[in-house]
Amino acid sequence: MSNGDLPVLPGATLGVLGGGQLGRMFAHAAQRMGYFTVVLDPDADSPAGRVSHNHIHTDYADVDGLARLAGLADAVTTEFENVPAPSLEHLAVARPVSPGASAIAIAQDRIAEKSHFTRCGVPCAPYAAIETAAQLAAVEDHLLPGILKTARMGYDGKGQQRVSTRAELVDAWQATGCVPCVLEKLLPLEFECSVILARGRDGQLVHFPPQRNLHRDGILAVTEVHPLNMPKTVAQGAINSAKSIANGLNYVGVLCVEFFALADGSLVVNEMAPRPHNSGHYTMEACDVSQFELQVRTLAGLPLAAPRQHSPAIMLNLLGDLWFPAGADKPASPPWAEVLALPGVHLHLYGKMEPRRGRKMGHLTLTGATLEGVRATATQAAVLLGLPAVAVTGLP
Ligand code: ATP
Ligand code: MG
Known about the structure:
- The chain has 12 helices and 17 strands.
- It is an alpha+beta fold.
- α1 (21-32) crosses α10 (291-300).
- The N and C termini lie far apart (58 Å).
């Protein structure tokens, strides 16, 4: 079977593995451009499945489900990195697939990912791979205190344990079931940032301006993007490193690279996500082309457009906690009408039926003519929603 011709033009069907909010926003972008969409996700009630023309409810490794996806879709992408790499290889026999299985396989595994960063000459936090009891015993003292992270399947800080002593490290590794892990030295972070880029099959590469990110409890809380959000040298260093990482993978698709900025102005890479990223949601309203449109274009083999940010932006994540104000015994809707009365507010809710603490239910993007105006609106929105103060830059 031919794996199909490119470009795949509007009117055709684009498929996505995974039915979460990223798949939903991909489907919206594809549909706006005149594509039909099909989602494969085992959950019959998934956010992307609800808005797609077709929804295949099978496991990601189900051969019949994959065959149906290949039959309906003219090209296939993924919205999360834990999709089995063999499923992508299987689909790629029949259809154009991006990102490719080999890039996904590296991004799925923190040990392989860190080796790739090192190969590209991009420094990461000092770490040790722990796959055996002998490697555990050989861990050097300077890595403590540190964070033990499972090599696979971690997200939103899940699968991570902070450890200060060797005894804690041993207990923590045992608590993982002795699965492969990395121990990373705990670094004093000045701030966190990320770069989102898109790379086409022909190697054309475009990127968004670096985002400055604030995490709470290991989950992204606030993203702030404008020319003063970080020193220019740091921003340029992050862009250069992200490009090296993408080129080194011969990557096709949208890629997010997360960094830690340290007090001395240096940068270390944290991890990469082979897909659009939560820190890039502001691109939908603050840029002339969004991260999801670039995912469509890279998948379809269409030309990429260098994005232009036309408004300063702040993004606030809306976690399920907001549905449970102090003392509430059952969920209550946050005060959307009051929030929407503010200027430059863009509300996104992902259609998840059940709010739960720590669950990403949606996000709010604030845009405006000036940074001061956007910050003022963000502060007012945060007060209305009961969120902590929002300014993350520390710069004037
Ligand atoms: P996600 O996939 O949602 O980004 P994750 O579960 O893969 O998250 P990481 O990105 O590894 O987790 O870590 C989550 C957060 O924990 C980071 O954004 C940072 O705030 C903190 N963190 C992780 N590693 C370190 C470190 N070595 N030193 C200091 N802080 C760290
Ligand atoms: Mg992360």
